[in-house]
Please model this.
Amino acid sequence: MKAKVTVMLKAGVLDPQGEAVRHALGSLGFAGVEKVRQGKVIELDLATTDRAEAEAEVTAMCEKLLANTVIESYQVEIG
Amino acid sequence: MKAAIITFPGSNCDRDLATAFEREGFEVARVWHKDTALPEGTDVVGVPGGFSYGDYLRCGAIAARSPIVAAMTAHVTRGGYMIGICNGFQILTETGLLPGALMRNAGLKFVCRTVGLRVQTSDSVFTSALDKGQVIQVPLAHHEGNYVIDDDGLSRLKAEDRIAFTYTENPNGSVADIAGILSDNRRVLGMMPHPERAADPALGPAEGRAVFGGILQAVVSA
Model:
């Protein structure tokens, strides 16, 4: 079973990298980009075929390692 | 007077840190991240700078899940001293031994220069040899030193006098110019600048020495 975790900086946490990307887009002529937030996507292949178990397991992984919940939020997609 | 310096894959300030402790008279043991215990009688643990695990995932994130971390946590729980410098500070926030997090520098550049640090409290072993308000010159070198903490956390740090050092000129966007903080029992210090790189008079000003000297005084008089 596949899982996809999206980790983003929490709203309200300044994202200097996203801001730099926004500037670069502007200098390439892409006008009107008001905000850019940069995050990361982590894909996992899991042995389990149980959806609920996979979701619980990956959520635990996010809390323990994949995200730093002080500054980041995460979203888990299964399948 | 025993110090234990932890080495992770990618640590590169471990030897400098060991030398800084030895200079003050500590007996230094080097501890590998896969070890599960600290040497008997360890008074202070040093978590060095570097790029543990190549900064993969987040700076310090993988190192903070190493086998040795349980022993580090137990050391702090029983009242032992610990200092985390640069990547060591990042590792200590990732373990939860210190609050907050360290993000990419606001200017997005790797900053490598000597900065002025203002001592915000002398109420800790690390700063007891310094005066509150005193400014010392210490080098820093990092890309992720932008200290972040929520408003409640910051109020707590201030109310409990747990901000050890602030920058005289903020190099990285850190909230409230924070360069170093203390744990709630004041026995763990995390700081981004490198006092161990300002500890040998032969190599320039040695104003960082006071940090290690302060720990020694506390251990000797205990």
Observations:
- The mean pLDDT of chain A is 95.
- Chain A has two helices and three strands.
- Residues 2-78 of chain A form a domain with the Mth169; Chain: A , fold (CATH 3.30.1280.10).
